Amino acid sequence: MISLRNLSKRYGPRLAVDDLTLELKPGAVTGFLGPNGAGKSTTMRLILGLDRPTAGRALIGGRPYHRIPAPLRTVGATLDARALHPARSGHAHLTALARGNGIPMRRVGEVLERVGMAQAARKRAGGLSLGMSQRLGIAAALLGDPPVVMFDEPVNGLDPDGVRWVRKLMRSLAEEGRTVFVSSHLMSEMQQTADHLVVIGRGRLIADAPLPEVIASSSLSAVVVRSPHAAELAALLAAAGAVVERPGEHDLVATGTTAERVGDLAHEAGIRLHELRAREASLEQAYQELTSGSVEYRSV
Ligand SMILES: Nc1ncnc2c1ncn2[C@@H]1O[C@H](COP(=O)(O)OP(=O)(O)OP(=O)(O)O)[C@@H](O)[C@H]1O
Question: Boundaries of each ABC transporter domain copy (predicted)?
Fold first, then answer.
């Protein structure tokens, strides 16, 4: 639903987004990761037509943002979640937004209910807690019932209950078949929420892969196997591109592969397994390795 084609954005001498090409799929939460200054916000702004690309294109449902006839019904975003008029209530804010975009008024009540704000709907936006204003921003993003939703750091500053709530919401939006694109600095959170990850560094694409593959790419991830035919399986895995160590006659430890692949390969070759276990790195560890060359300022 979102496709980026050779997307670039230059600010003076600085290439903030550098030739990004990728496709975001519906029905999944895609996490958008990268060190500070990597170009995540700029990419999201380009998708939403808030900035013009220097080269390439960002398309939603095959069109650039400014050619979408009913934008709020196509894509919802929380990039400006706190840009609310402080004297207006959440209800008034959503009502104005619905009226201005030809969205039925019943949606106001529906989205307030969905984000758990029905009680606080008449409070002035200026008097809302950070958690509540995040929820209101999400309500606004969902107002047009859009198939694509984008959230920039949605759990920033939220307490653990708020973080859990956002995680459940992202999952349910994806289960409804929407394209969910969310940037975050919280790796442990992304590990629990995302199906797929896009990692950028200095504007460039570093990884675009399902979460398990990103984790498996870490040198700390490995598949641990015990089999009476370990040598035979080791040869097959090595031929398939994995790096294999043999700590014992019946043992092997493979990196650069997944437990699923090892299991499938063993099954196809009729090799019996007595143990098959993924030793998983954390997303944090995989991310550190992926981006170690892209961090702008490193403390020593
Ligand atoms: N309007 C602008 N004018 C000039 N430079 C900009 C502008 N917006 C962003 N940049 C620069 O582009 C680069 C990418 O910034 P961007 O905010 O997109 O990164 P980010 O990945 O969202 O970072 P963070 O995680 O810190 O929010 C940075 O070097 C930033 O200084």
Answer: 2-227
Residues 103 and 136 in one domain: yes
Q: What is this structure's pTM?
A: 0.85
Q: Which of 18, 41, 186 to mutate to test the pocket of ligand 1 (most atoms within 8 A of CB)?
A: 41
294 within some domain: no
With a 6 Å cutoff on the Cβ, whether 34 touches ligand 1 is yes
- Of 257, 273, 76, 53, nearest to 173 (Cα)? 76
pLDDT of residue 80: 59
Query: How many structural domains compose the chain?
Result: 2
CB-ligand 1 contact for 14 (6 Å cutoff): yes
198 and 230 together in one domain? no
Are 128 and 272 found together in one domain?
Answer: no
pLDDT, tens only, 162-194: 899 999 999 999 999 999 999 998 888 999 999
Both 233 and 190 in one domain: the answer is: no
User: What's the CA-to-centroid distance between 200 and ligand 1, angstroms?
Assistant: 13
Residue 158: pLDDT over 90: no
* pLDDT tens column, 123-145: 887 888 888 888 999 999 999 99
